[in-house]
C-alpha cells in the first residue's frame, strides 16, 4: 500500500519539471504578454525568459505601475504650492515670488 506522502514525494519533482519545461518553451514575445508593463512602459525581453520594463516618463517600478509624484521632493520654494502633473509639476507662487520653483523675487 502506497502512502500519500510517498506518492507526493515521488510525483512532486515530476510536476515541477513539467512546469519548468513549459516556461523554457516560452518565446520572447510570450514573456511580454499580457501587458506586463501596465500600459505605462515598454516590455523588453531578456535572454533568460524574463523581461525588463522601460517606463514612460512619470511612471516608475519594475512593471511601471507606480505614478511618480514629482511634488514629493517639495520642489517649490518660498511657500509655493506644488501641483503634480502627469509628467512634471507646477508651482503656484506667493505674490512676491516668481519662476518655475518660486525662487525669483518680483
Automatic annotation (TrEMBL):
Disulfide bonds, paired cysteine numbers: 55-64, 93-102
Q: Does the keyword Cell inner membrane apply?
A: no
Q: Which GO MF term does the entry hold, naming one? A: calcium ion binding
Q: Does the keyword Signal apply?
A: yes
Domain EGF-like positions: 28-65, 67-103
Instruction: List the Pfam families.
Output: EGF (PF00008)
Q: Which PANTHER family match?
A: CYTOCHROME C OXIDASE POLYPEPTIDE VIC-2, UNINFLATABLE, ISOFORM C
**What name does UniProt use for this protein?**
EGF-like domain-containing protein
Organism whose genome encodes this protein: Adineta ricciae
Organism taxonomic ancestry: Eukaryota, Metazoa, Spiralia, Gnathifera, Rotifera
Amino acid at each position: 500500500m502506497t502512502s500519500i506522502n510517498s506518492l507526493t514525494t515521488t510525483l512532486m519533482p515530476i510536476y515541477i519539471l513539467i512546469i519548468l519545461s513549459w516556461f523554457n518553451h516560452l518565446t520572447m514575445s510570450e514573456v511580454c504578454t499580457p501587458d506586463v508593463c501596465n500600459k505605462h512602459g515598454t516590455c523588453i525581453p531578456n535572454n533568460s525568459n524574463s523581461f525588463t520594463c522601460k517606463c514612460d516618463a512619470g511612471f516608475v517600478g519594475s512593471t511601471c505601475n507606480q505614478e511618480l509624484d514629482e511634488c514629493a521632493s517639495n520642489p517649490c520654494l518660498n511657500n509655493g504650492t506644488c501641483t503634480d502633473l502627469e509628467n512634471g509639476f507646477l508651482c503656484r507662487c506667493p505674490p512676491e515670488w516668481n519662476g518655475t520653483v518660486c525662487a525669483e523675487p518680483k
